[in-house]
Design brief:
This protein is mainly alpha-helical. Helices cover about 75% and strands about 0% of the residues. The protein contains 14 helices and no strands. Helix 3 crosses helix 4, helix 6 runs antiparallel to helix 13 and helix 8 runs parallel beside helix 10. The longest helix has about 35 residues. The chain is globular and about 60 Å long. It starts with 12 loop residues before the first helix and ends with a helix. The relative contact order is 0.24.
């Protein structure tokens, strides 16, 4: 009987936290503030929506942390569903993630990355596909060379994406002149539930770290710390950025500017270079998010193949 192959356990707490932060913080932090303010009706309720969305995400993180301590295997959701609901449910979940959800979201991020590259460098949109495919192929090659290299890219991208977020949060709160007026209403049709739902888009992606549980040095201790610690940092970043935006721009202006609110705030804080700073920050965020997904999704077919191999070999 052949010896069952195992992936090397060389992922530590730092890389695990960077996976959580890197796969969660993408473009949502720059795109969603205007929609959340509009749906919630005002800045105070918008901030509460971000808090509630974060609490819901933390609750999900606690659930997955408990599962990961009981089932410390590579494969994430596929493994959990198979262990709890049986092989048929796990089979369907695994293949949907492997051939539909994973490739679709990686492709979407690649195309968005390419589009933003064209806008940043003033190129025609035809180059967007070239940049997008190039980024996906490059990250796939880097991750195929080993977990350490993929983890290094993830850690570097996470640090890089935190720079514009930190600058906006610090200088926005420090130098902003607008006052946060909690009673102002910017929309006549409000829905706090819809506002919370909108924040969940920006919080999505944290569960991908569970896909590499079998490669974490001590998953029972590290994975819960990574999920809870990483999500807590994300919530803090989101709240600080929203507070900073509200110190620089009025709620009405944020709603009117939509996806350009963060770029406009950066331009007011740092001059013309501010808009380019945000554009570069979004590119780094998407690049890191894309790397995190390329880093984690291949573990699903690996886990499925390992389970099939064990089935035939009787291990």
């Amino acid at each position: 009987m052949e010896k069952h192959q195992e992936l090397q356990k060389n992922i530590g707490l730092g890389v695990a936290i960077s996976l959580v932060i890197g796969t969660v913080i993408g473009s949502g932090i720059f795109m969603k503030p205007s929609q959340v303010i509009e749906l919630s009706g005002g800045p105070a309720m918008a901030l509460w929506a971000w808090v509630v969305g974060g609490i819901i995400t933390i609750a999900g993180g606690l659930t997955v942390s408990e599962l990961s301590t009981q089932i410390p295997k590579t494969g994430g959701l596929y493994v959990y569903i198979e262990e709890v609901y049986g092989k048929s449910a796990g089979y369907l979940s695994g293949w949907v993630q492997a051939i539909v959800y994973g490739p679709a979201i990686i492709g979407t991020l690649g195309l968005y990355f390419g589009t933003l590259c064209c806008a940043l460098f003033g190129l025609g949109q035809g180059w967007g596909i070239v940049f997008g495919i190039g980024a996906v192929v490059f990250l796939a090659l880097m991750n195929s060379l080993g977990t350490k290299l993929g983890g290094f890219i993830q850690s570097a991208a996470t640090i890089g994406k935190m720079v514009p977020i930190a600058l906006i949060a610090i200088f926005g709160i420090w130098k902003g002149t607008s006052q946060i007026t909690g009673l102002s209403v910017v929309s006549h049709e409000t829905s706090f539930g819809a506002a919370v739902l909108s924040t969940l888009f920006a919080y999505d992606g944290w569960m991908l770290v569970s896909m590499v549980a079998g490669e974490i040095k001590n998953p029972q201790k590290i994975l819960p710390k990574a999920i809870i610690g990483g999500l807590s940092l994300v919530i803090a970043c989101y709240l600080l950025v929203n507070i900073a935006l509200l110190h620089v721009l009025s709620p009405e202006a944020i709603v009117h500017l939509g996806n350009n609110a963060a770029g406009t705030a950066a331009s007011l804080l740092f001059g013309q270079s501010g808009g380019r700073l945000i554009a570069i920050g979004i590119l780094i965020s998407i690049f890191g998010c894309m790397n995190g997904k390329i880093f984690t999704f291949p573990r699903i077919p690996f886990a499925m193949a390992s389970a099939t191999n064990c089935l035939f070999q009787g291990c």
